[in-house]
Amino acid sequence: MAKKSKKGSPTDIRVKLIRYSLYHPKTPRPLRFGTMRMLRHWTIHRAWKLYQAAQRKEREYELERQYNKMRDACEELRLTSPGLYARAVAKSIFRYPIVEFRIPTDTPAKNGWNHEWKRG
User: Fold this and answer.
1) pLDDT digits (tens, 9 = 90+) for 18-37
2) Per-residue confidence (pLDDT) for residue 81, from 0 to 100
3) Does residue 65 fall inside a structural domain?
4) Within 13 Å of residue 75, how many CA atoms lie on the same side as its CB?
């Protein structure tokens, strides 16, 4: 429960922040549109929201499709080669040599390419 100050206004920090953002001199005043302009604004805003919802639905569908393909591929690998499947889904941190963890940079390496390196 928020404490009451001597003037009777709450001292809750949330209330202070809301008041500050609403009544600060640099806060722009709310838009005041005429009836037709408000209708145009609402129509454009609603169309934009519908467009964004359609894009979001399309992205979710694409991710679901990719997930299903990966699940099917893992199931096929499990049925085809159980040993390879076990190695593929193993939860090991050190599956790759440290050489493959090189940080990508904008400049070339000082030593150049290591032609003798072989995958272990």
Assistant:
1) 888 888 878 777 778 899 99
2) 92
3) yes
4) 6
Residue 27 included in any domain:
no
107, two tokens: 């400049």
Looking at the DSSP assignment, which residues form a beta bridge with residue 10? 4
The SS3 call for residue 33 is coil
pLDDT of residue 9: 58
Query: By the 8 A CB rule, do 33 and 41 touch?
Result: yes
DSSP code string of 65-114: HHHHHHHHHHHHHHHH-HHHHHHHS---S--S-GGGGPPP-SS--SS---
**Domain count along the chain:** 1
Nearest Cα to 102, choosing from 90, 91, 113?
A: 113
Six token digits for residue 4:
């009451």
Residue in the block written with tokens 């941190």: 93
Flag whether 25 is in a domain. no
- Residue 93's pLDDT is 63
For residue 105, is it within any domain?
A: no
Q: Give the DSSP H or E segment for 56.
A: helix 35-80
What is the per-residue pLDDT for 4? 56
